[in-house]
Amino acid sequence: MPPLLSAQIRELRARAHGLNPVVSISENGLTDAVLKEIDVSLKAHELIKIRVYGDSRENRLSYLERICSELAATAVQHIGKLLIVYRENPENSAVDRKKAQKSRSSEPRRTKRSHQG
What we know:
This protein is of the alpha+beta class. 49% of the residues lie in helices and 19% in strands. It has a four-stranded mixed sheet, sandwiched between helices.
């Protein structure tokens, strides 16, 4: 995945602000089962928060790096014990584009009227 532009990262941080963590990494660390759950969550939501239990900043950074490299995701933010990760889902994007096109086509067409008077 190509690196995100700073404007895109700002927009993703803003979107993530209201999200609750959907995956937790416990003291057991980043297991294969946790990675699989993160993958499923990214497929469903594209942008997720992950809560990390444990006080080691180095562990959190290594988890974030491993998640991004193994799941082809992008790190959006690491703040405290929260990791925010994004991965575009082409299937979701196609559905979103179809919804946008459908909503545009169902809107009444506006025509310019000349105002005489």
